[in-house]
Amino acid sequence: MDPANDAIEQARRAGFDMDLLETNLALTPEERWRQHDTALEFVLELQQARMARDAKLQPTPPAAR
Amino acid sequence: MQSFSQLLQRLADAGLDFVIVGGYAAVAYGSSIVTRDLDICAVLTPENVKTLRRTLADAHPRHRLTHKRLSFLRHPGAGQPLQNLYLETDIGVIDVLSSILGVGDFDRLRSQAETLEVGGREFRVISIDDLIKAKEALGRERDLLAAKELRAIAAKRAQREPGTGSRA
To answer: Taking CB atoms and an 8 Å cutoff, what residues of chain B touch A5?
Structure first.
């Protein structure tokens, strides 16, 4: 296998979605960054929601009851 | 609100000479991996530190690796040499590195960097070859995985536009 196809095959085997990669490559760098920032914002919102839920689930200390 | 694009625009508008490295550089090339920090390479001269402080002042930059989250606006004091900065701000986490493991210092990185136009501004981004070297030099599982994706991206770029990929 030539080096280029070998690199693609190795990435595929590592679990990367080549269709998604093709979609990303069709975008401009600006669009890629914008898409990334939106995804990061969503990840951070999910993280905050999980932390808020976990805080609610903490038992109230006896002294505070 | 986290916005690496906004951070980059501010730094570019302030005239800071820097190269985008790390995960956000990988995203510029098409990586699908979400990164939580913006890494840039710049020489941390007193003048550049002053520029960074002025540019980030209203975003409350703090040293994120210090226990008390010391303010970057006051620490370190004047005259103290700096190698790297690891900051969190109200608009995102930003690391400023003076050299990149496996690649070299700012001048070396800048000489091979690609220039991308985004939002009417030009940004220097570490070359994909150097980015692969940097990820592989770090050697952590996640960086090696990222390097695999970058090698595939470089291969696809070379197939689409010969001369733009790496030696992958």
So the answer is: 155
